[in-house]
Amino acid sequence: AKKKGKNRYLFYSDELEQRRIRNAWIEQHLYAAISNGEISVHYQPIVDLRTKEISGLEALARWKHPKSGFIPPSEFIQVAENNGLIIPIGSQVMETAAQDLKQLHEKGFQHLYISINLSLKQLKHSDFIKRIISLPEIYGLKPEHFQFEITETVALFEDSDLIRTIKKLKEQQFRIAIDDFGKGFSSIGYLKQITVDTIKIDKSYVFDLCKDKEIAKLTNAIIAMANFLQLKIIAEGVELSEHVNFLNKYQNVLGQGYYFSRPIPFDQITTYLQKHSK
Ligand code: C2E
Ligand code: CA
Ligand code: CA
Ligand code: CA
């Protein structure tokens, strides 16, 4: 047992070392990636499960390195948050998304909103927030055409400046969604405090929905609570028709996942919308 423990430790430190090397590579190439236009935005539809209508699109950052190919956000977003590059990356994503949404509105999809991920670093950046507030006027859109997704963390709810910023955005009529709900720190009390309007149920719940009775019960409870607080619900990671059938029992639940579409580039989104609109 002792030997196994030692091997495990070695294996673990080896993994840490590889992660460190990988992060250094990412950090080294991320600067150039931003100025060379290697960062783009893909979109994933958010769908009304009952009517099958598309209500919004989540904007997701993509990095395609000329030699190494796609580097997933799970790898580079964390690095960008640590070294501050999340500000220029986040700006690019936000401006691109706003431009693309404007185009879609001009093509007749005027009900659509765009949903943009924000990290705490972005929320704390006062110029970034100012830019957000000016977006509707700049692009000729309404605040309700923008949703901002904020991942729930303890840090978020303990920081009164952050809570104030979120309130300010909410007062301007922007949509605010809590991302990855139920994954980490979840508190109903805090949810009320920051007056969000949507929760996104983490995909780990949806994955286990049909396999695990306890998870199904918990999901029931989350949806009941959200309804009671008059919050909208988006279920993430909807991959199977079983997921759709389970979630269809509820009113006002939106879904997002591979069942409907993977995140796809802008030109493909236009085609997708044309095909799936009545
Ligand atoms: P997230 O905000 O939870 O985004 C949803 C992730 O789930 C995306 O991964 C999406 O591709 C994936 N996904 C969607 N449907 C399914 C499904 O049915 N099954 C499975 N297994 N996965 C699904 P992605 O694009 O790799 O992004 C990972 C994370 O990176 C995001 O998680 C988000 O936290 C972060 N991120 C991405 N773009 C941005 C950005 O522009 N700014 C910030 N701050 N974070 C971003
Ligand atoms: Ca998200
Ligand atoms: Ca997130
Ligand atoms: Ca999420």
UniProtKB/TrEMBL annotation:
<protein>
    <submittedName>
        <fullName>EAL domain-containing protein</fullName>
    </submittedName>
</protein>
<feature type="domain" description="EAL">
    <location>
        <begin position="23"/>
        <end position="277"/>
    </location>
</feature>
